[in-house]
Amino acid sequence: MDWPRIRARKDAVISTVFSGVERSLQRNPRIDLIRGRARFLGPNRLEVGGREVEANKVIVASGVAPVIPSIPGLKEAGFLTNEAIMETEERILPGKDFR
User: How far apart are CA 91 and CA 78, in angstroms?
Assistant: First the structure.
């Protein structure tokens, strides 16, 4: 298994998909691309970054972040999230101490 190649491929795929989707949204004259934290206020209303927005159709492209559960001793034992694993320089082997 070529771990550096796997990581490079993952980075390339993410970059290509992200930039392609963003470019498509920006070029579409029927779409207003608005970035920020959002919350629904009603059936066709959102608040995005303190600004109220009304629309018949909305695409919510949310980012994700790992949630670390509150388990006693987890932090001390050491753990890796899916993101952290993909950023390691070397492939993590089962049973290997990764702290």
Answer: 16
| Whole-number CA gyration radius for the chain | 20
pTM of the complete model: 0.57
pLDDT in tens, 54-92: 999 888 877 778 889 999 999 898 888 888 888 888 877
C-beta of residue 8 within 8 angstroms of C-beta of residue 95: no
Contact 36, 43 (CB under 8 A): no
Which of 97, 71, 90 has its CA nearest to residue 6?
90
* Structure tokens belonging to residue 11: 């980075």
Encode pLDDT of 12-33 as tens digits. 998 998 888 889 989 999 998 8
- 68 with 74: CB under 8 angstroms? yes
Please write down the HEC assignment for all residues of 59-72.
CCCCCCCCCCCCCC
Q: How many CB atoms lie within 10 A of CB 38?
A: 16
